[in-house]
Amino acid sequence: MFLCLMLASLWLAPQALAANPDGEIGQAVGTVDADTWRQVKNGGNSIDSRHDSNYSLINQSGETWRQIRNRWISPGGLIALGGMLAVLVIFYLLVGRNNLDHPRSGKLMLRWTALERAMHWTLATLFLTLAITGINLLWGKFVFRNVFGDVFWANMIMATKVIHNYVGPLFSIMLILVLAKWLKLNLPKKHDLDWFRQGGGMMKGKHPDAGFANGGEKAWYWILATVGLVVIASGLVLDFPIFGQTRDNMQWANVFHGIASLMLIAVSFGHIYIGTAGTEGAFEGMKTGYVDETWAKQHHNLWYDEVKQAEAADPAADPATAPDDSLARQQRPN
């Protein structure tokens, strides 16, 4: 993805490189000297006199935002993401993969339909695109600018910003659709508390009860439904500055957007780990739509029992016509 961003950036116009910050501020606010900055520090504003504007070009809140971003969000986010990756690596080295306790049965059960898999992978692709471009916007200059120089960096960051701005609204729409689609399956149940108490069975202990979605999956769903909506709302404020947002509004939206996004990325590392290297057979379900019965009984025993009871009650039921809920997941004929 980084390579694609680099190549795409080379096509963008280089006019940003010709910008002269000192010349522009001089044209906008006249003489910029010690007295100007002293007035700003004392609460004075510099107004853009061009085009009959009353827009404040310089104010102290901008410095406050810069300090929050550079002294708290940037290093805090690095600690959060790096810490989460370190924890997962250490956990994998000490505990290892959560393998199946019994051999595979060879009998497969439908867990995810083609539509559901398409929705999941579309959302995942949009999320990863935003995560990579967002990380580049926050920290990329410390790497790519020093390695490739100002010209490359200017074009690359311009492409990154365009991609991030246009993908954001698409992610917003897709996330709302996904949340609506799986709301019923992620409603909290009493046995979810036991799932957390037993660590989801990840510590080689007894596997806790779980329905179609276990406690961890439900936690991820509700993080997306809360923190994810903060990301969406703040991102739309930044993406469409045409509804009377003030500069202060935009700065605070940027702060909330950065914190919420970094939280979401950090938690997503755990979701990705459990769904791939951390759990045997988990990735197969989202790749093909089917899981082995042994996997279903071990990780989602309550859902497995529901499906089997539904089959016993109506052996001739056609899975293709079953309603779209946890009882509709049927065994695939061999």
TrEMBL record:
<keyword id="KW-0408">Iron</keyword>
<keyword id="KW-0249">Electron transport</keyword>
<dbReference type="InterPro" id="IPR006471">
    <property type="entry name" value="Formate_DH_gsu"/>
</dbReference>
<feature type="transmembrane region" description="Helical">
    <location>
        <begin position="219"/>
        <end position="243"/>
    </location>
</feature>
<feature type="signal peptide">
    <location>
        <begin position="1"/>
        <end position="18"/>
    </location>
</feature>
<feature type="transmembrane region" description="Helical">
    <location>
        <begin position="72"/>
        <end position="95"/>
    </location>
</feature>
<keyword id="KW-0732">Signal</keyword>
<dbReference type="Pfam" id="PF01292">
    <property type="entry name" value="Ni_hydr_CYTB"/>
</dbReference>
<keyword id="KW-1003">Cell membrane</keyword>
<dbReference type="GO" id="GO:0008863">
    <property type="term" value="F:formate dehydrogenase (NAD+) activity"/>
</dbReference>
<dbReference type="InterPro" id="IPR051817">
    <property type="entry name" value="FDH_cytochrome_b556_subunit"/>
</dbReference>
<dbReference type="InterPro" id="IPR016174">
    <property type="entry name" value="Di-haem_cyt_TM"/>
</dbReference>
<keyword id="KW-0560">Oxidoreductase</keyword>
<feature type="compositionally biased region" description="Low complexity">
    <location>
        <begin position="312"/>
        <end position="325"/>
    </location>
</feature>
<keyword id="KW-0472">Membrane</keyword>
<comment type="similarity">
    <text>Belongs to the formate dehydrogenase gamma subunit family.</text>
</comment>
<dbReference type="InterPro" id="IPR011577">
    <property type="entry name" value="Cyt_b561_bac/Ni-Hgenase"/>
</dbReference>
<keyword id="KW-1133">Transmembrane helix</keyword>
<protein>
    <submittedName>
        <fullName>Formate dehydrogenase subunit gamma</fullName>
        <ecNumber>1.17.1.9</ecNumber>
    </submittedName>
</protein>
<feature type="transmembrane region" description="Helical">
    <location>
        <begin position="163"/>
        <end position="183"/>
    </location>
</feature>
<feature type="transmembrane region" description="Helical">
    <location>
        <begin position="255"/>
        <end position="274"/>
    </location>
</feature>
<keyword id="KW-0813">Transport</keyword>
<feature type="region of interest" description="Disordered">
    <location>
        <begin position="311"/>
        <end position="334"/>
    </location>
</feature>
<keyword id="KW-0479">Metal-binding</keyword>
<feature type="transmembrane region" description="Helical">
    <location>
        <begin position="118"/>
        <end position="139"/>
    </location>
</feature>
<keyword id="KW-0812">Transmembrane</keyword>
<feature type="domain" description="Cytochrome b561 bacterial/Ni-hydrogenase">
    <location>
        <begin position="111"/>
        <end position="288"/>
    </location>
</feature>
<keyword id="KW-0349">Heme</keyword>
